[in-house]
Amino acid sequence: MAIDILLTVICSIFALVVVISSNPMVSAFSLLTMFVAMAGIFFQLGSTFISAIQVLVYAGAIAILFIFVLMLLNIDDYKKHLSRNNVKPIVGIVSAMVLLGVFSIIITNNFDYLSKDQLPQTNMMDLFKELFEKYLVPFELATMLLLASVVTVVSMLKKSLGNNEDGDQA
Amino acid sequence: MIIYYYLAAFLFCLGLVGALTKKNLISILLCIELMLSAVNLFFVLFSKTTGNIDSQIQVFFIITVAAAEAAIGISIIVSLFKKINTTESDEVSIQSE
Amino acid sequence: MINEILILLAKVIIIILIPLGVLPLIIHVERRGAAFIQKRVGPNRVGPFGLLQPLADVVKFMFKEEVAPSHVRPFFYKLAPIFAVMVALMPLASIPLCAPFIIGGETIFPESFRSSMGIFYVFAAASLGSYAILIAGWASNNKFSMLGAIRASAQMVSYELSMSITLVAMFFLYGTNDLHQMVAYQNETILGFLPRWGFFYQPIATVIFLVGIFAESNRLPFDLAEGESELVAGYHVEYSSMKFALFFMAEYIHMIVLSAVFIILFFGGYNLLPGMSLLENMIPLPILQTASLIIKVGLMIWLFVWVRWSLPRLRYDQLMDLGWKRLLPLGIINLIITVAFIYFQK
Lengths: 170, 97, 346
Fold this sequence. Notes:
The structure holds 3 protein chains of 3 kinds.
Chain A: H1 2-20, H2 24-44, H3 48-73, H4 88-109, H5 124-133, H6 136-161
Chain B: H1 2-21, H2 25-50, H3 54-84, H4 89-96
Chain C: H1 2-37, H2 53-63, H3 74-89, E1 101-103, E2 106-108, H4 119-127, H5 129-140, H6 143-174, H7 179-185, E3 189-190, E4 194-195, H8 198-201, H9 203-216, H10 228-231, H11 241-266, H12 285-308, H13 316-345
Antiparallel strand pairs in C: 1-2, 3-4
Helix pairs in contact in C: 1-11, 1-12, 3-5, 3-11, 5-6, 6-9, 6-13, 9-11, 11-12
């Protein structure tokens, strides 16, 4: 139980830093920390494969892409990246209402009826079996999506960079 | 385990606030990633609550979509930066008029 | 309960002490090996054969004045070296030194963190290693450091991809992601005399993985992150004394970890070396297995030193060409052939 609370606190603090910080680099690093902490939560919940994927893809590829581009563009005058003050009240009210709505759903539905010992331990092989039998077509579509995104990125950057070699490695 | 439900809802709303109020395009993308991972957490929690493995597979697909989205978003930002030398969302909309 | 905690503590201490204890020896071997290859003498003044030279270096590092430039970002500047060593030590938690053994009716697994993730954990933890370099490069607030960090991160991400593809081929071969089962698969022999190592089934994957290790640990011929002739020293230009030593340590620990993974995947892991089974009556099996793993890793380290002083540094576009246009397609072809072979064999 203590480790659950610890992970929750770590996640919330770093997520807050992501939103509050005016320096995009600090946001990116704290987002990375949050991803790793969330992998810890997934491990704590017993889905080990998802937690490994979380670190490998989110922390190992997506966050590094963000940091890489931030360093490449070298946006140093981040002091002017202040947030939009005129929409802040409306956004704050709307998201607070969303938050309260979800909280009320959580409280009224009592999701916590499975205790920790009853949690079904997800076997990695079960997951793969389900993925490659029941979800084969979506899986193939996902690979098509990835291929399409790679082609898009390369062609877009080729056009914007002229005849140079593609510099992005997405 | 109930604490994680609150955490997921909190993270989602935080990401929403950030995505709507930030001015830098890369920061907006970061906040969208935050929202996506909050949804991931919800799916894993649902899978654990119902004992159903299907929602974990949804997480797998969300991660795939997030990777593709990050790559394309970043490349759009990079080509914008090459053209108009900024990553501010306001200046992009001003210059397109 | 207290028993479990003690066992866990012992495992953690052993797994951290082995690389940290071997580290001075590796540095010495590297310097003497460099001297040997270049027909020099090398450090031989401090202690017998100069063996105490690393110790003297540590003392020097400790007592040097720490210079922090005024233009760095202080928090991240201090964080980077600590993060580097921490992340480099993380994958060690899941690397098995010997087979599970039984003491007092209890089966004890040698790794301190055992989960169903298996080798996924090692890879996930190792993939965090590039962040230390990124943080250092960004925090130094200096264009040479920044360029070094950008180069290092692009290189590590590129080569991680081809390494992961060979890893998938090895999954199909072994049919598992558990490191112990992988090693057990390689315990038998083929054709009567050859050990059934992954290397003999997957020579192409072995070569790709080996190149990937060199690129991941930022060693020559891939050490563009710190190319002295262009970037002064890359990401650690601004670091001095013990902070620099921590980066140095992290690089060597990274090397040890990746070599151990390579040995486990392709060269039989902790299986006994030929001839070692004669000693089985005198020395307990776990110690023999640990020793054989350490000997194999030592040979890998010697390979690192050998390659470092034999091959010239690649140019950056050559590096990217090799990663994306050569190794990645080769890895995909290798994967397809492996899968087809296993499918038709069944």
